[in-house]
Amino acid sequence: MDEVSVTKLTFSHGPGVAPSLVDISLNLPTGSRTILIGANGAGKSTLLQILAGKRLITANGADVRIKGKDVFREYPHGVTFLGTEWYDYISSSPKNASLRASASRAMNPVVRGDIVVSQFLDSVGGYRYKERRDRLLDILDVDLDWHMHAISDGERRRVQLVMGLMQAFDVLLLDEVTVDLDVLVRDDLLKFLKEDSESRGATIIYATHIYDGLNDFPTHIAHMRLGAFVTQPTPWSSSHATAVATFGARTLYDVALQWLKDDRDFRRNLEKSGRKARGARIDVVPSDSETFYKKYDYAH
């Protein structure tokens, strides 16, 4: 049985809105580590949020399962989702109802308030996972005496990762969560996650735009464009010869770069056929805002 299985998934964020995901199907084996590659807006985050049970699907025929269980009706234990917002993780933990309510507020007082990191981790059950928590504290170079309101975004992100990873997972869904980390901490974290996956058979799906240092991490890579898979999750080898034979490029970075260039060319061809174009607008008639602000521009 595949650890993650999706069949005929189409999803729209609202009635009358164009689908963000179109006829998605995938099957990932236990212990796999899949990198999702695609431009901004390709649907990577939406797919991960659906796998995490955070968005309800209503389309007929869609089936989304993790560990053989429907993610909306019998959500399986052992699934961790980590995204750029703190409440992404907190809301997935039913034991943290009061913390969830606070962290969902706009100003997010829990993670930006004057609370010491050691107390914060204890408040979310860190004492229950002491051995793994302490290893992550060392890997992520976290000071237990930091005050949450007085540290940088990167340091706060490290605390989030300790919180999210200190309980062992069976399936880990990562959405751009390493974006604030310096290169050394990120490298140490990826080594830990790879070792964790190999030793326990844990499955990881990771959406990122940072490909440096990832060449040896994935077992599979996949390419998403405009809500669909261009390339289904395909086995990846860090061997240059194998990578060239399979994907036409030597490294994961080169593969991602080529795929993203293809995405841009594809979109621009659609724009020539009538799709709304991006970039500068060359209008003969100035916009209302341009006309207004020119009238009161005293810079010259």
UniProtKB/TrEMBL annotation:
Question: Which PANTHER family is this protein grouped with?
Answer: SKFA PEPTIDE EXPORT ATP-BINDING PROTEIN SKFE (PTHR43158:SF2)
Extract the InterPro entries matched here. AAA+_ATPase (IPR003593), ABC_transporter-like_ATP-bd (IPR003439), P-loop_NTPase (IPR027417)
Q: Coiled-coil stretches, from where to where? A: none
Pfam families xref list: ABC_tran (PF00005)
SUPFAM superfamilies, A to Z: P-loop containing nucleoside triphosphate hydrolases
Q: Which keywords, in A-to-Z order, does the entry hold?
A: ATP-binding, Nucleotide-binding
Superkingdom of the source species: Eukaryota
Entry protein name: ABC transporter domain-containing protein
Domain ABC transporter stretches: 4-251
A Gene Ontology molecular-function term?
Answer: ATP hydrolysis activity
